[in-house]
Amino acid sequence: MARRQSVKQGTRRRPAAKAQRQVGYAVVGLGHFAQESVLPAFAHARGNSRLVALVSGDAKKARVLGKKHGVPVFGYEQFEECLALPEVEAVYIVLPNSMHAEYAVRAARAGAHVLCEKPLATTEAECREMIGACEQSDVRLMTAYRLHFERANLQAVKAVREGKLGEPRLFASTFCFQLKTPNIRTEADKGGGVLWDIGVYCVNAARYLFRAEPIEVFAFYDRSGDPRFTETEEAASVVMRFPEGKLASFNVSFGAEAVATYRLVGTQGELHLENAYENKGPIHWTLKSRGKTRRGKVSARDQLAPELLTFSQCILEGKDPEPDGWEGLADVRIVAALYESARSGQPVKLEPIERTRRPTPEQELRRPPSRTPELIHVQAPSR
User: Residues 61, 92, 118, 164: which is the catalytic one?
Assistant: First the structure.
């Protein structure tokens, strides 16, 4: 059904979503990821999505990118003015982690649907505020987990679901790269830190492969003495205990050679993915099941267009997306517990939560890779 029109203070009436073929998006934040991956994705999502506005605090980005994409650009202080445009039905928030909650709540109260980059926020309370604001205004909220639509990771989910590994028991992962600084990923007041930035991928993968939630976690982190990391950790090592004897461990670093891999071991097989979390390049996989070994790769694809296509369809049909705001909250509470453990030197128990929705192979959407455009006033995060 169509989205119910809000008449609460601070919102306005919009055309019924079902009457629109395309959902109009304002992209909020024009950093490296937004320019390299989000903006080009609209070319592959034009079936039901279109870019109608940009929000940035950088004058050169505003001038160049506004002209390139033929859309108006607003400063952060003009956010409500942007939301007042009738074409803006949804926002894609690509801001520093510490700003996610504020802008999501403001957008929801204005009646706009919210697609927000991970981590959804930096505290469970902020996540709940975002979820509550969207529910109150009857708008959709989606956490931007691109791997929930990516073939290699969804085939891993399928292999587990079909019993190819027997009972999954152990998950181990390494995700790291050499971070260029200055970078918001090393600024504590912006929600920086290796666990928030890339550790969340490992947490999420363990959860969707085990199809379960951890009940206890333990973490170490270290700043290594590197001058790049005076405010946040450079590396972290984590163990998570799941029900029924399942264990997950991972290592993440902003100061090591680029690696993005995970291995899932079961009672009758194992699955290994190389380049598992990356947005660029092919993903290689190896599956050993009951004495037989298969290898293959999934070619590079646009991983952002499927997010837009899925979220827009949910808006048009009045459905809640997978991954929703609660999926984002599930990871945030775990990462927050990992930081608590690292500070205290003690394991942290987690109250059980129930998640009935997980990514499934049916969510896969394929779009060709997009070309990297000319980037304005940004640099790649890795050396």
Answer: 118
pLDDT at residue 15 in the model: 47
Instruction: Please tell me the predicted confidence (pLDDT) of residue 9.
Output: 36
Structural contact between residues 97 and 192, judged by C-beta atoms closer than 8 angstroms: yes
> What pLDDT score does 21 carry?
80
The token pair at 333 is 């509470």
Give the pLDDT confidence score for residue 17 in this predicted structure.
44
Quick check: is 76 catalytic? Answer: no
Say how far apart CA 94 and CA 158 lie, in whole Å. 30
Beta strands in 99-223 (DSSP E): 113-117, 141-144, 168-178, 216-222
CA-to-CA distance for 174 and 33, rounded, in angstroms? Answer: 22
Q: Which helix (H) or strand (E) holds 50?
A: strand 49-55
3-state secondary structure 237-299: EEEEECCCCCEEEEEEECEEEEEEEEEEEECCEEEEEECCCCCCCCEEEEEEECCEEEEEEEC
Considering 25, 201, 208, 277, which one is annotated as catalytic? 201
Phi and psi dihedrals of 212, rounded to 5?
-155, 170
Is 365 within 8 Å of 310 (Cβ atoms)? Answer: yes
Enumerate residue ranges in the chain where pLDDT < 50: 1-20
Is residue 116 within 8 A of residue 144, CB to CB? The reply is yes
| Whole-number pLDDT of residue 352 | 86
Q: Which secondary-structure segment (H or E) carries 89?
A: none
Is position 103 annotated as part of the catalytic site? no
Distance separating alpha carbons of residues 383 and 370, to the nearest angstrom: 22
